């Protein structure tokens, strides 16, 4: 401190600190976005520079001999609704299975506990792709009627069955995370076990597991691509179909991968917002 | 209540305003594994009586309370609340119909907990009407009227639509008292109701409890608040090593204890103040 220099006023310092903080976080965000653009753009440019990558293929007509036919990208993106429907329906069924499974895993009845545990162990102990192929190719050998069931239903069943087992453990943990005192208080008020579960434990457990369900839903949209192996014409199946017919797998698969990526980013943003709102809520 | 059994508490010293026996615990033992926590407790609580249970931690006070409404299954003994009588069933062989008796006991014995246990996903009012409407089948409108009456009584009427997270600890415990009262219990059982409170909020809860006691609410309170026990108790029960070591009017037990263990306990508690 030299001569008669005045020390700055505290509110000036605070304002300066705030400004500096804002500048730093803006800079951080800018570099963050630039990094993404540079790396992704760089990879695409590098591919384009090579002789074997033709991004205009995706823009061209699906039937090479007929310029008026649907463009390839429209055909591939046409698989998005199916991908989303498969994911939503499967996760819904999986939640129901998981609820039943969790109650089973918490049951004092040895048979119920045994059945629920078997379900979880069996499903978690085998690959999802095996389950999907099994349902489609092997099940008709046992139940001939399933041979006539469209592949999409069988795919949904396999996905729901698989995720139901993983989510069973999530739900079980969620139910157990509700403090014991909550149950005791409800019982002390004379509530029967089923009412305690329905009105006191479950509503609190669901809040606990919602972030995990969100994560599973995001995973499900990606794992739904596996049902392409049994011929369900969703996003990946369409990309592969057009790609291999024209020896343009790179172009079509990049497009499909980009779409999956975009879907998960959007869903993650939704989930973040939901979680923030719940954190703000009454708990 | 049957009168053929001898009351376990000498009638001669019983305050005159008391009526029939509401809670009778007879020969209650409780083991946790090999740990013998209750070693034969007999306790009668008369209508309109406020019984305060004191004793060092581990003496079995809380366990006794939890055995009375079967949050803990007694290992041995009988519990009778307002004429509903249930025997201990340590082997878990009780038929379904007898399990309903436990529910009957719980409907008659309201319980307050150290950490309140309000339902966090329900507003204060919903907390109060949930059990009356869903367990007792009271009409919603009627349950709301009752709930508002008791919320007013504990000074929380203006908080009826708040969620528990927005209440202070003292307000939470008062809301829990209102919730218990809404079921119209014959006896209120408090398990260290002020132990989890911020010190400056203990007073407001004790004040509500003291009012209840003076209005003739039958209550059993496990507490460490000696001053409160002296003010509000009709009887003080001192537990030691899983048995009732001494009991009587507060001035006798607290000021002129007969048992050496009581004296020791009180010396220690008062020294800590």
Largest sheet of chain B: 6 strands, mixed
Q: How many DSSP helices of chain A?
A: 11
Task: Write down the Rg of chain A.
Answer: 27 Å
Instruction: Output mean pLDDT of chain A.
Output: 92
Sheet bearing the most strands of chain A, described?
Answer: none
If you compute it from the alpha carbons, what radius of gyration of chain B comes out, rounded to the nearest whole angstrom?
A: 18 Å
Briefly note the structural class of the backbone of chain A: mainly alpha
Number of strands of chain B: 10
Largest interface: A-B, 20 and 27 residues
Low-confidence stretches of chain A: none
Descriptive key words:
heterodimer; A: 283 residues; mainly alpha; 76% helix; 0% strand; B: 273 residues; alpha/beta; four-stranded antiparallel β-sheet; 9 helices; 10 strands; 36% helix; disordered N terminus
Give a brief outline of the structure:
The complex is a heterodimer of chains A (283) and B (273). Chain A is mostly helical and 283 residues long.
Description:
The complex is a heterodimer of chains A (283) and B (273). Chain A is an all-alpha fold. Helices cover 76% and strands 0% of the residues of chain A. Chain A is built from 11 helices and no strands. The mean pLDDT of chain A is 92. Chain B is α/β, with parallel strands linked by helices and 273 residues long. Chain A binds chain B through residues 179, 181-182, 184-192, 195, 199-200, 203-204, 207, 282-283, and chain B through 69, 71, 103, 106-107, 109-111, 113, 115, 117-121, 130-131, 134-136, 163, 165-166, 176, 179-180, 183.
List the helices and strands and how they pair.
The complex is a heterodimer of chains A (283) and B (273).
Chain A: H1 10-49, H2 56-59, H3 72-77, H4 80-105, H5 110-124, H6 128-142, H7 151-177, H8 180-188, H9 193-223, H10 235-245, H11 249-280
Helix pairs in contact in A: 4-5, 4-7, 4-9, 5-7, 6-7, 7-9, 8-9, 9-11, 10-11
Chain B: E1 21-32, E2 35-46, E3 50-54, H1 61-68, E4 76-81, E5 84-87, H2 96-108, E6 109-112, H3 124-134, H4 140-153, H5 169-181, E7 187-191, H6 202-214, E8 219-222, H7 226-232, E9 235-240, E10 243-248, H8 250-255, H9 260-272
Parallel strand pairs in B: 3-8, 3-9, 6-7, 7-8
Antiparallel strand pairs in B: 1-2, 1-4, 4-5, 9-10
């Amino acid at each position: 401190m030299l001569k008669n220099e005045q020390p700055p006023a505290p509110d000036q310092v605070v304002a300066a600190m705030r400004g500096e903080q804002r500048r730093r976080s803006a800079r951080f965000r800018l570099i963050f976005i630039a990094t993404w653009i540079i790396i992704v753009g760089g990879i695409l440019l590098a591919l384009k520079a090579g002789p074997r990558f033709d991004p205009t293929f995706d823009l061209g007509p699906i039937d090479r001999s007929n310029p008026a036919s649907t463009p390839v990208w429209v055909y591939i993106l046409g698989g998005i609704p199916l991908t989303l429907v498969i994911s939503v329906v499967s996760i819904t069924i999986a939640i129901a299975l998981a609820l039943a499974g969790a109650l089973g895993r918490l049951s004092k009845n040895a048979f119920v506990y045994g059945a629920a545990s078997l379900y979880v162990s069996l499903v978690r102990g085998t690959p999802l792709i095996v389950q999907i192929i099994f349902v489609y190719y092997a099940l008709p050998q046992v139940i001939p009627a399933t041979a006539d069931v469209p592949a999409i239903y069988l795919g949904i069943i396999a996905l729901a069955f698989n995720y139901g087992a993983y989510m069973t453990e999530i739900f079980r943990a969620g139910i157990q995370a509700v403090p014991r005192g909550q149950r005791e208080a409800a019982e002390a008020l004379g509530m029967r076990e089923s009412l305690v579960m329905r009105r006191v434990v479950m509503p609190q457990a669901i809040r606990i597991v919602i972030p995990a369900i969100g994560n599973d839903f995001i995973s499900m949209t990606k794992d739904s691509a596996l049902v392409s192996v049994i011929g369900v014409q969703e996003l990946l199946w369409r990309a592969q179909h057009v790609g291999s017919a024209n020896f343009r797998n790179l172009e079509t698969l990049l497009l499909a991968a980009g779409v999956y990526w975009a879907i998960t980013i959007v869903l993650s943003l939704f989930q973040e917002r939901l979680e923030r709102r719940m954190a703000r809520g009454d708990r | 209540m049957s009168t053929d059994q001898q009351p376990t508490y000498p009638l001669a010293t019983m305050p005159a305003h008391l009526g029939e026996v509401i809670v009778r615990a007879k020969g209650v033992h409780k083991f946790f594994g090999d740990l013998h926590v209750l070693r034969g407790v007999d306790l009668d609580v008369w209508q309109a009586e406020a019984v305060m249970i004191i004793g060092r931690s581990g003496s079995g006070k809380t366990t006794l309370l939890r055995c009375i409404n079967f949050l803990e299954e007694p290992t041995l003994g009988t519990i009778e609340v307002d004429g509903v009588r249930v025997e201990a069933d340590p082997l878990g062989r009780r038929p379904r119909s007898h399990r309903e008796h436990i529910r009957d006991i719980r409907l008659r014995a309201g319980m307050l907990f150290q950490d309140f246990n309000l339902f966090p996903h329900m507003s204060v009012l919903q907390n109060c009407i949930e059990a009356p409407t869903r367990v007792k089948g009271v009409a919603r409108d009627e349950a709301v009227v009752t709930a508002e009456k008791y919320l007013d009584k504990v000074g929380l009427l203006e908080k009826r639509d708040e969620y528990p997270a927005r209440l202070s600890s003292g307000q939470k415990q008062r809301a829990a008292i209102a919730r218990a009262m809404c079921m119209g219990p014959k006896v209120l059982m408090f398990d260290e109701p002020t132990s989890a409170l911020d010190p400056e909020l203990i007073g407001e809860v004790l004040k509500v409890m003291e009012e209840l006691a003076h209005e003739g609410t039958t209550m059993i309170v496990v507490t460490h608040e000696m001053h409160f026990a002296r003010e509000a108790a009709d009887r003080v029960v001192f537990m030691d090593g899983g048995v009732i070591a001494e009991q009587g009017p507060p001035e006798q037990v607290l000021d002129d204890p007969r048992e050496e263990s009581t004296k020791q306990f009180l010396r220690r508690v008062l020294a800590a103040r």
